[in-house]
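ok so i was messing around last nite and threw this chain in just to see what happens. nothing serious, just curious
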Amino acid sequence: MDELALLQNYLIVGALLFGIGLVGFVSRRNMIVMFLSAEMMLQGVSVSLVAWGRYHNDWGGQMLVILILTVAACEAAIALAVVLSLFHQSGSLDIAIWQHLREDNQPEFIEREVLEPLAPEHQWPKLAPSGIEPEPDLEEIAHRSHV
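result:
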């Protein structure tokens, strides 16, 4: 395989990892999912750095990846400690609950309620208890006799 084609393939994989991590970070409010998405973004950058290092025949990309892995491990340990302590305080991993942690100059997060459409209640047929003969439905019998 050509070196340029190999570089493009690695960069596409790195961009996909980064993009999926970015979408997960922006769209989810669960702290654990947000940290996992941040880790996925770091792995996408790492794949790209290794690809560029291989393409240029240089070890700089691999050394930066080792640094990124070290920082990611430290970040994961600190994040786990923060998540556990905040979960013990509030009992939830939802970001919107922790309003008291925002800076003073930041506006309070106001969640807009999304109303779910009311579904019509469906009447499911009911079976008679075992050993008891069901009562006849008089309306259905009258309808059958007219047809």
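not much to say yet. The radius of gyration is 29 Å.
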